[in-house]
Amino acid sequence: MNGELILFFVLALVAIGSGILMLNLTKVVHMVIALVFTFLSIAGLYVMLSAEFVAFVQVLIYSGAITIIMLFGIMLTRHDDKTETKIGAPRMILVLTGIVAFFVVMFFQINDLSFGEQAADLHVDNTEKIGIALYSKYVIPFELTSVLLLVALVGAIILAKRDDKDKGAEDNE
Amino acid sequence: MMDELLYSSPSLTNTLIFFGLGASLLMMVLGFVTYAILAERKVMGFMQLRIGPNRVGGPFGLLQTVADVLKLLLKEDTIPKAADRPLFMLAPVIAFAPAFMVLAVIPFSESLRFSDIGIGLLYYIAISGISTIGVLMGGWASNNKYALLGGMRSAAQMISYEVPLVMSVIGVILLTGSLNLIQIVEAQENIAFLFVQPLAFVIFMITSVAELNRTPFDLPEAESELVAGYHVEYSGFRWAFFMLSEYVYLFAMASITTIVFLGGWNPIPYLEFIPGVIWFALKFSLIVFFLIWLRATLPRLRADQLMSFGWKVLLPLALLNIFISAVIKEIWF
Fold first, then answer.
1. Looking at chain B from residue 62 to 121, which residues have their Cβ under 8 Å from any Cβ of chain A?
2. Which of B174, B197, B210 is nearest to B313 (CA)?
3. ipTM of this predicted complex?
4. What whole-number distance in Å separates Cα of residue A85 and Cα of residue A74?
5. Which domains does chain A have, with CATH numbers?
6. First to last CA, chain B
7. Mutate to test the interface with B, among A6, A32, A53, A70 (most CBs of B within 10 A)
8. CA B303 to CA B220: how far, in whole Å?
9. Could you tell me if B163 lies within 8 Å of chain A, comparing CB atoms?
10. What is the per-residue pLDDT across B184-202, written as a single tens digit (0 to 9) for each?
11. What pTM was estimated for this model as a whole?
């Protein structure tokens, strides 16, 4: 039992535990906070895999994204709003068998899985290598993704604008 | 000595040494916060033709902040009945922990540094974003209209100004070719990035003031509109934690500005005999003084002005700066 293993267990437990909490808590803001802990511990796991760049980009993107989700949660729900769920016994049993089957399949598959030789020098200049790979080997997927994001951005602006115009027209009538 | 420690294999002794170093850094930062608050009050007093604190601890009020902190610790810790207890108690922790975590990557001089990671600048920006969640959480958990409005304003402001902040340092990253803060300092051996990237420096200073929630961007805690903002229901030790995180961010932001734009521990030519730590401290103090100066001089912006300024002025300027830096790098370097 070395430090790495202990750290892995702590991070994995926090990630899974807050995932479960997120599903079981009743208030929207509490759920979002549970989500924060899941994402942070997953970032910790990335650091352990010597992928610091991915880890901190994840923190950067998700801390902003989660704040926005939280804002929506606050604005679109009432303060003491709680979700009430009622699940019948047959559905419970069905879900439970599904989970057990999934676990068994994944467990045996992961046990048999072999990645071959593990790379030992992943941590050397990995940010630079990601950049080089992205702009030489995978430049077309990268550009396509950026075009997709741009389209989404422009679409969002147009949708927001049109709404405003309609309102103005209604006011004039 | 520090480098040997950083590159040595991990062991129990090393863990204890790093724990001790971390604790001593925390003490140093707390000392800074104590005297930064006093300096802020003194400088603002001087600028407004007042005297400032002058009773506790000699003629300069040297123990004023210590007395204030003691008073805060002795105060009753109130939690409103309608507040969301667990989140109310967790919020100051989430607001403060990232403030101290970001200090891990800041190199103070060629020998005094606590880490050497390739993504130092990204780490700083990413981790400092977590504080927003703490602030918004505190505002929501207080179950108070003013607190909620302050928290919402703070979230909107910090997210909008993070974008130009990140964009403004991209020029520097382009010219250095690294995100490592140590290499950024070493790249400024001949000339500080302040002179190479003046536009980026101006954008960075404005957005950093907004990220710190200081005047003229202190809308989240605008006293005249929101009573006190997101921490209106907090008292005693928890309130002190919010204030502490604000001043620790002041420390971190002034350090990052020193490193990225003022050349860190690099000396001014012909004055190389002065050690690097002192140069760092001098440049750092200059930035802190500038931030206090701004606070005493400028009035507060309106909420709509703040948003349109961030998105319509700073962001296009930052993009323009990236474009110009790319062209300069292609031609000269």
1. 84, 87, 90, 117-119
2. B210
3. 0.78
4. 21
5. 1-103 (1.20.120.1200)
6. 34
7. A70
8. 10
9. no
10. 888 888 888 888 888 889 9
11. 0.83
